[in-house]
Fold:
Amino acid sequence: MMQASATAEQEAPSARQQAVLDAVLGLMVEDSEQLTMDAVARRASCSKETLYKWFGDRDGLLTATVRWQASRVHAGRDAAQVLDGATLRERLQDFAVTWLEVITGPTSVALNRIAIAHAGSRKSNLGGIVLANGRFAIGERVKPVLEAGRAAGLLTFADSEAAFRTFFGLVGRDIQIRLLLGETLDLDGAEIRRDAGRAVEQFLALYGRAQPDPKHQA
Structure:
């Protein structure tokens, strides 16, 4: 399993593999009890042998699926070594918007519900897979952006993990838990952008370092 996971982390899935991963996500939304290699092979119109060749085993398939879902979040994409204030704000906003878009969708709600149920019953390692390849992996991609902002004198914090957890909490608030518990939240694109922008401004109010106005510089 470890070898298959390492390969999945290094290489982006092909178009055909993406179709398989989308089939897994579709099955999760419809009926998690039917999430077997046989069911995935039927839905994706491929053989089980192909699934085992590409993903190693069921955990490898689940790991690749979670990574594929998490890849929709723009976390640290093309992170620059040196940031200015506008670029930092843009990158934080991009993460916040895409993360909210992902977690409020039915696919992520279904995936997280299954992961929680499996973690409680120890039915599979899906809970650990979601943590490692979702929340923790995203954090490792966002923290370099925060650290670049600190290096540029735009942010001030002692611990990048603590700073990321604060930002993560400001963006998500209680939305995910409410969705997991069955509340219907109708968040359109404009509302998601407003919520993301508010979280970014709150984060910068907590961790931002005031910059001199260029018009008043000598």
Remarks:
- The chain has eleven helices and no strands.
- Residues 33 and 100 are 27 Å apart (CA to CA).
- Residues 1-9, 212-218 have pLDDT under 50 and may be disordered.
